[in-house]
Write a structure and sequence with these properties.
This protein has 1246 residues and is mainly α. A two-stranded antiparallel sheet has the order 1-2. A hairpin with a 2-residue loop joins β1 (1077-1082) and β2. The longest helix has 31 residues, at 390-420. The radius of gyration is 39 Å and the shape is globular. It starts with 8 loop residues before the first helix and ends with a helix.
């Protein structure tokens, strides 16, 4: 390729001169070089670029008139990069010349192609849009009736620059296109339908209403068949491009489309069926009223075959044995090529195909009709398996597959719902099962498999066979048992393996079959199943071979289950092919990886059927593959699976093999590949746990050295497994060669999450048991370490597991008694509390007494006092009968230690909620504790803001909530009564307690023996709780409102029957109340304070929680139209509410894009204001951060809306909304969003 310097005039000048050459080859090569220069964005034009580009424009446009077609085509190609280099004036010149360009008769569409190229590639700015619209529209509209090229240009123009059209221009264009529909001919009229679809996104409400009125009036007047077909097509096209705006008119339009099916014209009927398919797919909710009509129409036309005299009476009685025999004879005749019906003029097959597609769309969008569809549609579809037309037969089979697939999806959802209803009675379950489609499918499955077997044998068409296998695969995935006719189908599969295009589908069918059915059901089919898998594994095409080897793993699991079936020969066959593929160097990598995984499954499930020699040989293969860089990842996974299997034992492999594997895996920990290191460490953890008895001391020492380097890195992903491996080594060997105490101690203050602290504490426990307790005690006895929760737990573990309790507790107790070191006293108390949790009731009473802790309540430090109270609770939790009565006796309204005693009680209740036995131990004291807590006059204390009283209220409320979880039947009725208290403070405490109950799962709420679950007991409480959403006290109202979010997140079933009431109350709280806004004098300034702001924040948070909780099951009850209004209103509120509102809008877009589509104009303005706002130079850091957060959230929400629209356009289950539905939104996306995203794209997703 030629290289060009910065001054391109010298390079371009000779190219332009050659464009006038008489030799067409010179002209072509010149244009080719010119295209290269223009396409290279790094090449700048010369200083006289305006003159240069004008000459280029003249040369390219002149080449469009060239008498050589290749030169013309290349000239059109040059226009694409040229448009990026020209200014508005030059662009106008190009449009003027192309608009009047006269082409030769041999290629009349060249000017159109050139214009479309420019329209597609020119930058889509508002200025350019006005130039194009102003220059082209008046030229295109008069020619629409006679030129398809003009219509094509118009479609591109509207799609690209529709937002630049004025109201008058949109009206003129609509009028012109309607004129084409009425008087145009042939292809022009068909293209005009597409143009109307593109224009519909830019119609104003008035013009849209006019369009709808035109369609409805035209249908009612009655029009010729050719126009009727066009009108029906327009309805479908408008639904595709603008289903949201079409939905209000869908009723009369659907009725008209249904009536058009009575016209004796196959083209009209086909168009009507296609339009109905679009309606059902994109407006399933609105079309629900026409479901019966759709089923009737689909059923009528799926068997519509007037030109073929076939006996179809057997459709009436599908289960009759005589009919089955007749059908066999009929099917034989169907595929007799000598007698096959042939009529080139017969187009009824198109109606049958469209009807099948219509039924498939209805099945996919209306799962609630599944039971009815099995009764009315499924038998008809099965009868049409004999369809003579190839494309129709495939569509019918795919429609039935969709029905079965929807059955599986419904069954999964039903199973999930059933598992959540734990108290449902058996009678209810049986009633549900009677209407379950899974009960209806088995009644039809025999006929299905019989027909499918005949298809595979007698049809030569690959698409039909593929569709048959799809139906079979979906059916066996749902059927609980296989019908007798399945024995007719399975023998037809193996011969079909001769066709390579079907092998993958057959293997997938086998995999699904063996995964979903038992060995007893499949015993007679094992020869065929294994033969298919072996043949597939040996296929020369790697995709088929790898799929077969993956299926081999499923077959291995099946044939090794306990049964009376002898499967040894099948295991031998599978073992031979798997080993052959794993060791074949010429095999593709994917094939070898799947074979290695299959070897692992053989060693896990079939080891009893393999000889010791075979097992050892397989182990050698795994070790060899582990040392190979390409197969190493798959081998690591296979070895890990073997080690993790409960059925594998330490004697499976010999000692030398285990040691070599450990050394090899340990060596991989030094590699730079992070994914490889992670998988190697995970496998090493499993191998050491399973085969520790075969790892010698020397190997363990080397492993410790490697793991030391892993721990030093402080990588949390690797830290947990590394510590677990060390724990295994210490437990087995008793000690570690190479001191790692210093490293472990350094880790203690850094770790806080259970995923890492758990393994670390387990390692400390193992080391302490191994005799290193004194060493660890000295290392951990550091104030900076012990002040952390993990440090206190670690030292407690060392003391207890190292047998140092009697020796060290007195020393720690003395440290806790010091008054000159609050940090040391607090850390010592923390250690004592952790020791008490570990040793439980066996703690020596003479070493730890509550008197000692009561004395700590007198220390000046608040932190020490609270820690002493927590330690008291830990001691009392394990010695309930000894200590709880004493604490209760001290808990009086007059006590100065009331708060600390409540802290201790909370610790007692928390620790005794972990097991049912401990909960029962506390049960005799719960009533007394309840009375003592309310005797503290918490209601009065809650009226005092801040300080001890406020803190006491919060702790006591949690304590009350936890007591209620222990015995819900006893205390929930009491809470319900107290919710109605006239005392504001009492209501505040009870709201906090009930809110805690809402946040608990079922496991923590049913520890004691109860006749009813806590959820059932909470149902009447929730009804009373709603009244608190209108509480006169703002703080109580805020607490109650925020509690709704907790209910929606943890126990949505409690709200499911009250959505309308809850949403109404929440919507009410999203409005600002002027009477709650007051002015506060702050020095010389007046500052406005909104006392209702916190309530509004809680209301928006709860609305979002409701959106998330009920998006799937209760979408229709969420009042999304009101929800989007309040979310938009929140964009003008406080910063936190703005953020929540943006999140809500994004979620609503995901749930139902049509709701957001109606508000795009408003959202475009709101988001434009957010993204365009610039802060003052004097803005403080907090303002800058908040503004940046809001902008990022607005961009993220805009992207969610765009993604939701894109997904909806591709989905047949969602109502679509085009991104061009609103000109304002399209302009916002083009001019504001993309610009802002490009500038700050790296920050958008933060």
């Amino acid at each position: 390729m030629a290289s060009y310097n910065t001054n391109t005039s010298y390079a371009i000048q000779p190219l332009l001169e050659k464009l006038s050459s008489e030799d067409s080859d010179f002209r072509f090569m010149s244009l080719s070089d010119l295209h290269t220069i223009l396409s290279n964005k790094t090449v700048a034009l010369a200083s006289d670029s305006t003159t240069t580009i004008n000459r280029i424009v003249d040369g390219v446009l002149k080449s469009l008139s060239d008498n050589n077609a290749e030169v013309q085509n290349l000239a059109v190609k040059c226009l694409a990069p040229l448009t990026a280099r020209i200014n508005d004036t030059q662009l106008t010149n190009v449009l003027n010349r192309l608009s009047s360009f006269s082409t030769t008769e041999s290629d009349g569409s060249l000017a159109s192609t050139a214009l479309r190229t420019i329209i597609t590639n020119v930058p889509a700015t508002n200025t350019v849009g006005k130039i194009f619209v102003g220059r082209l529209l008046h030229t295109l509209l008069p020619n629409l009736r006679n030129s398809t090229d003009s219509v094509d240009v118009l479609v591109d123009l509207v799609n690209r620059f529709g937002a630049s059209l004025t109201y008058e221009q949109v009206g003129e264009t609509q009028h012109a296109l309607i004129g084409v529909l009425e008087t145009g001919k042939g292809l022009v009229r068909k293209r005009a339908v597409g143009a109307l679809g593109a224009l519909s996104n830019h119609l104003t409400p008035k013009l849209w209403d006019n369009m709808m009125k035109y369609l409805i009036d035209s249908f009612s007047r009655g029009v010729p068949a050719d126009r009727l077909r066009i009108l029906v097509s327009v309805c479908g096209t408008l639904c595709k491009t603008n289903s949201v705006r079409l939905s209000p008119y869908l009723g009369p339009l659907t009725e008209s489309v249904l009536k058009s099916l009575e016209v004796e014209d196959d083209d009209v009927r086909e168009s009507a069926l296609i339009t109905l398919d679009t309606f059902v797919g994109l407006c399933s909710t609105e079309m629900a009223a026409f479901s019966g009509d759709i089923i009737a129409v689909g059923s009528r036309f799926v068997k519509f075959d007037p030109n073929y005299a076939a006996v179809e009476e057997d459709e009436e009685e599908m289960d009759d044995a005589d009919d089955d025999e007749d059908e066999d004879n009929e099917l034989d005749g169907e595929y007799d090529e000598d007698d096959a019906f042939s009529d080139e003029d017969d187009v009824s097959w198109r109606l049958r195909r469209c009807a099948a597609k219509l039924l498939a769309t209805l099945i996919e969008t209306r799962p609630d009709l599944l039971s009815h569809l099995y009764t009315s549609v499924a038998p008809l579809l099965i009868s049409r398996f004999k369809e003579r037309e190839e494309t129709v037969r495939v569509e019918v089979l795919n429609t039935f597959a969709a029905l079965v697939r929807q059955t599986a999806s419904t069954a999964t959802a039903a199973a999930a719902a059933s598992s959540s209803r734990r108290k449902r009675r058996m009678s209810d379950d049986s009633m549900i099962l009677e209407s379950d489609p899974r009960r209806q499918l088995p009644d039809l499955s025999g006929r299905v498999f019989k027909l499918l077997s005949q298809h595979l044998l007698k049809i030569s068409s690959l698409p039909s066979k593929q569709a048959c296998l799809t139906v079979a695969t979906e059916t066996v995935a749902v059927l609980p048992s296989l019908p007798y006719e399945f024995s007719l189908f399975i023998p037809t599969i193996e011969p079909a393996m001769s066709q390579s295009t079907l092998r993958t589908s057959i293997i997938h069918f086998v995999s699904i079959l063996v995964t979903n059915h038992s060995l007893e059901q499949l015993a007679e089919y094992l020869p065929t199943i294994v033969s298919i898998v072996v043949a597939g594994a040996d296929d020369k095409f790697y995709k088929i071979s790898s799929e077969a080897l993956a299926a081999a793993g499923d077959v291995i699991i099946l044939i090794t289950t306990t049964s009376n079936v002898d499967t040894s020969k099948y295991i031998t066959q599978l073992h031979e092919i798997v080993v052959a593929k794993a060791t074949a160097s010429e095999s593709d990598l994917e094939v070898r990886e799947k074979a290695i995984m299959a070897i692992g499954q053989l060693l896990i499930y079939a080891r009893d059927a393999l000889s010791k020699t075979e097992i050892d040989a397989d182990a050698v293969i795994l070790l060899d593959r582990l040392k190979n860089e390409t197969t190493r990842p798959a081998t690591i996974r296979s070895i890990e699976n073997i080690g993790a299997s409960p059925s594998a034992d330490a004697s499976l492999f010999d000692k030398n093999w285990v040691i070599e594997v450990v050394i090899e895996l340990a060596g991989l920990l030094r590699k730079s590949n992070r994914a490889l290191r992670a998988s190697a460490l995970s496998a090493l953890k499993v191998v050491t746990e399973k085969f520790m008895s075969q790892i010698d001391e020397a190997t363990a020492t080397g492993l410790v050295s490697v793991l030391r380097g892993v721990i030093v890195e402080d990588d949390l992903q690797f830290l947990g497994p590394a510590l677990s491996i060390l724990t295994t080594l210490v437990t087995a060997l008793g000690t570690l060669h190479g001191d790692i105490t210093d490293i472990l101690v350094d880790l203690v203050p850094k770790l806080a999450t259970p995923i890492t602290t758990g393994p670390l504490l387990a390692l400390f426990s193992a080391l302490a048991r191994a005799g290193q307790g004194q060493l660890l005690f000295s290392a951990l006895s550091n104030e900076d370490i012990l002040i952390t929760p993990t440090g206190a737990k670690a030292l407690a573990v060392v003391i207890v597991r190292g047998g140092l309790v009697d020796e060290k507790v007195a020393q720690i107790k003395a440290e806790a008694s010091r008054t000159d070191n609050d940090a040391g006293a607090r850390s010592a108390l923390m250690v004592l509390g952790e020791i008490a949790k570990l040793v439980g009731g066996s703690l020596p009473k003479d070493l730890l007494s509550l008197d000692f802790l009561f004395r700590q309540f007198a220390t000046p430090s608040d932190e020490v006092r609270v820690t002493a109270a927590q330690t008291m609770g830990a001691i009392a939790a394990s010695n309930v009968d000894t200590y709880v009565p004493l604490i209760i006796s001290q808990l009086t309204p007059e006590s100065t230690n009331a708060k600390l005693l409540v802290v201790a009680l909370k610790e007692i209740v928390v620790l005794n909620s972990t097991t049912k036995a401990r909960a029962l131990a506390l049960a005799p004291y719960t009533a007394d504790l309840w009375m003592r807590l309310f005797a503290l006059d918490l209601g009065a204390s809650s009226k005092i803001g801040g300080g001890e009283n406020s803190s006491l209220k919060l702790i006591a409320a949690e304590c009350i909530g936890r007591l209620t979880t222990l015995e819900p039947a006893k205390f929930i009725p009491n809470l319900q009564l107290l919710l109605r208290s006239n005392d504001v403070g009492t209501r505040s405490v009870i709201i906090s307690a009930v809110r805690f109950l809402f946040s608990q799962n079922d496991a923590s709420a049913t520890l004691a023996d109860e006749s009813a679950s806590a959820d059932e007991l909470l149902r009447p409480v929730v009804v009373d709780f709603f009244a608190l959403l209108e509480d006169s006290d703002l703080e109580n109202r805020r607490l109650a409102t925020s509690a709704i979010a907790s209910v929606a997140h943890n126990k949505p079933n409690l709200l499911a029957d009250h959505l309308a009431r809850v949403l109404g109350l929440l919507f009410q709280d999203t409005f600002a109340r002027p009477e709650l806004v007051r002015e506060v004098q702050m020095g010389p300034f007046k500052h406005k304070v909104d006392d209702g702001l916190d309530v509004r924040k809680a209301a928006y948070d709860s609305l979002y929680a409701m959106l998330v909780a009920f998006a799937q099951q209760r979408k229709a009850e969420l009042q999304l139209d009101v929800m989007i209004e309040r979310a938009i209103g929140g964009l003008d509120d406080d910063h936190d509410i703005k953020i929540t509102s943006c999140v809500m809008i994004g979620k609503i877009a995901e749930i139902d894009p049509s709701v957001v589509a109606t508000k795009l104009d408003v959202l475009a303005k709101k988001f434009t204001d957010v993204l365009s706002l610039k802060l003052k130079e004097t803005a403080i850091k907090q303002e800058v951060e908040k503004h940046g957060e809001l902008q990022r959230r607005a961009i993220r929400t805009s992207q969610q809306i765009q993604s939701a629209f894109a997904a909806a356009e591709k989905s047949t289950e969602a109502v679509t909304a085009s991104t061009d539905i609103s000109p304002a939104w399209a302009k916002y996306v083009t001019e504001t969003l993309r610009t802002k995203t490009a500038v700050g794209g790296d920050q958008v997703m933060r």
